[in-house]
Amino acid sequence: MIEYLDSHSSEKITLRKLSTFTGLCPNHLQETFKRIVGVSPKAFCDARRLTHFKQLLKKGESISTAIYRAGYESSRAIYERSRKCMGMTPATYQRGGEGVTICYSLMDATLGRTLLARTENGICAILIGDDDKLLFGRLHGEFPKAVFTQDTVTPGKWIAATQSCQSEDPLISKLPESLRKQVFEVKLWKALR
Question: What is the extent of the structural domain holding 42?
Answer without folding.
Answer: 2-192
